[in-house]
Amino acid sequence: MNGPIDFLKAARSFRFAGVGIYNLFRYENNARIHLMACILVLMAGVFFDISSVEWTIIIIQIALVLAAEALNTSIEKLADLVMPDYHPVIKVVKDTAAAAVLILAISAVLVGLIIFVPKFLLLF
């Protein structure tokens, strides 16, 4: 370690990250869709009074999907800057990054079904 922690530098980093989160949800339609799904899942978690373990799993799934969406957006923006015109390799890069989001979203849906379907069925 080179010296004491620079808290001002750390605060600036958090501010930059906050701007990134704001921009993600302001400009990216798919991120807003994921955010709405997240809100619905959180409301369902409160309604069904899920356990601490279930909350932990849900929060991890939400974080994974949103982080993947942020990375996908970053990759797409960088790829568009580097190669504004169509390029087959850039297409593969962008499609693969989108696939990562889809894989995690499917995983999150499956986890949600495992947690919420039995609770929903108990209502009837």
Automatic annotation (TrEMBL):
Record's signal peptide: none
Keyword Acyltransferase: no
GO terms, biological process: phospholipid biosynthetic process
CDD domains: UDPK_IM_like
Sequence positions that bind substrate: E69
Binding positions (a divalent metal cation): E28, E76
InterPro entries the record matches: DAGK, DAGK_sf, UDPK
Listed GO MF terms: ATP binding; kinase activity; metal ion binding
Membrane-traversing stretches: 33-50, 56-75, 96-117
Subcellular locations according to the entry: Cell membrane
Membrane topology per record: Multi-pass membrane protein
Superkingdom per UniProt: Bacteria
Active site: E69
Cofactor binding mode and count: Mn(2+), Zn(2+), Cd(2+) and Co(2+) support activity to lesser extents.
Needed co-factor(s): Mg(2+)
Pfam families in the record: DAGK_prokar
Record: residues binding ATP: E28, E76, K94, D95
UniProt keywords, alphabetically: ATP-binding, Cell membrane, Kinase, Lipid biosynthesis, Lipid metabolism, Magnesium, Membrane, Metal-binding, Nucleotide-binding, Phospholipid biosynthesis, Phospholipid metabolism, Transferase, Transmembrane, Transmembrane helix
Principal localisation: membrane
GO-annotated cellular components: plasma membrane
Entry keyword annotation includes Ribonucleoprotein: no
Database matches in Gene3D superfamilies: 1.10.287.3610
Family: Belongs to the bacterial diacylglycerol kinase family.
Database matches in PANTHER family: DIACYLGLYCEROL KINASE (PTHR34299)
Protein name as catalogued: Diacylglycerol kinase (ATP)
Species this protein is from: Dyadobacter psychrophilus
